[in-house]
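Subject: mismatched residue count in predicted assembly?

I count 670 residues in my input, but I want to confirm that the predicted structure covers every chain. Input:
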Amino acid sequence: MSKVKVAINGYGTIGKRVADAVSLQDDMEIVGVSKTRPNFEASIAVDKGYAVYAPAEKVDSMKKGGISAAGTVEDMVESADIVVDCTPGGIGEKNKPLYEKAGVKAIWQGGEDHELAGVSFNASANYEEALGEDFVRVVSCNTTGLSRVIYPVDQEYGVKKVRVTLMRRAADPNDVKKGPINAIVPNPITLPSHHGPDIKTVMPHIDIATTAVKLPTTLMHVHTVNMELEKDCSTDDVKELFEKQSRIMLIEKGIGSTAEIMELGRDLGRPRGDMWENCVWKDSVTMYEGELYFFQGIHQESIVIPDNVDAIRAMMELESDGAKSIAKTNKTMGI
Amino acid sequence: MSKVKVAINGYGTIGKRVADAVSLQDDMEIVGVSKTRPNFEASIAVDKGYAVYAPAEKVDSMKKGGISAAGTVEDMVESADIVVDCTPGGIGEKNKPLYEKAGVKAIWQGGEDHELAGVSFNASANYEEALGEDFVRVVSCNTTGLSRVIYPVDQEYGVKKVRVTLMRRAADPNDVKKGPINAIVPNPITLPSHHGPDIKTVMPHIDIATTAVKLPTTLMHVHTVNMELEKDCSTDDVKELFEKQSRIMLIEKGIGSTAEIMELGRDLGRPRGDMWENCVWKDSVTMYEGELYFFQGIHQESIVIPDNVDAIRAMMELESDGAKSIAKTNKTMGI
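Triage response: the counts match. Full output below for your records.
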């Protein structure tokens, strides 16, 4: 069987990770990645053996910077079966005509609106909705993290209402331009935040209210999650349920902060120190006065990566069973 | 009428502010403040005209450091009608025998246990409980901030349940020893946190669940507050209710973060830039699906100061009506 040809449009924080994860699969391969600037990431892409493409108007400046483009982004798209668009939020939308013209399938990230793709995807919650689809949006890191915990709890106990405070890292570790460096920023100030409705693009029946702040940290988001459930259950029931989920890691053994979770990722030898799983603090999982509470850490740079791989598999109909795709992706990535 | 004689045991972040606030009142005066080290704060206390006392074993080292103590802490306590103990959490407890021996009243801060004093105090919520009492504990900054919003909402609409995420500044601005500098620290990891039960020391009938994290910021705490209410009300009803509370400030006009609130405090000419009020973001106040949500900023260094002044007035029976004490304290401090 020939491998599915995958192009990565936008080789940044998410794009470079998706490229590496796709390369680990036996049913898909990277045919090219696109960059707009000849920076260290472009050099490393070349060193890794990826064909680096550039927008037509950037081919010259890339060459001056020492990167000989394999062709234009249009060339790359033409050579692919499916494009994973990892351009910055709002830019991806503008690329849709390009993909339509070339007749290729496309995946966008959570920075784009649901309506652009029509299907919002989380591998654990709604794999089957992406089967054979041409356009799919893999939801954001926060929505991915919430989907992975809400879905199994809803399946097992029924979710009556979810309330979440999203404490967001304000900038990624490599981003030296953004703040704050010493403040808490309610964002948005008007409540509830847009994160709740985004969950409904994956699971429309979930009743959820979210509030969000930006914080002076770069490592991970942290969610405080509160759920009212339909059925009775115990703290241990929920811990056992989470333990069974392959993309939830229960955090214990003295790990008390997001910094220590990131150190765990490095000590585990993960590429770039990534933590692809929801990191749920085991001791925080508590049924209190009939309601579920817990803390989880979300590694914003990497949590959506396995879901991007699964989305490719669903859209290309390489695998009709979500559980099997998840198992395959997990095994290859080391989850 | 002679003024009530107030001693401040522990002239640090809280103690120096209480001393200044007491000095503004016409019914009480500072008879002394205590320091253990001859640092810049001790020098400024002397410059301000406060009699600076020291523990007997520290009198010599204070003198070597250029501060001639007016006497020992025991001397200071003997000269007072009431002591405001602003020593670090856990230390205040050890001073109780000293106050009992001298036959003086004492106020402790929120770092001590409720049981030490027997009465936990917030001027807005339970002024009358401190009337004539010998020992009172002014609750912590977080509990003060929550009491001030829960009490009026409970009076007006009945509070069925409160859920709060406390996002705590990890260290005060002058504290260079504590972290984290780049992490989110769930603290405590086990849920719910101790903050909920602390509210019950002021308002025992309130059903509340709290979660808390420590953050890499020094300026203020931020609470996301969710309340289920007994009676129907609108977003505007709650905004109007909060507007009527003299120790709640509705934050608007482009103030989007704790950093900008602190800048407001400085621009208002407040001593040390303090914000003694709960800082509730006006646009965040929302009734959503029948539940109340809002964000509030809590200036941990100063929010309890007016309540300490009111506690003195209640314990010394200078004023039996809490509203009148609050009005007097507010007027003198400029709230």
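The two ends of chain A are 26 Å apart (CA to CA). Marking this ticket as 'not a bug'.
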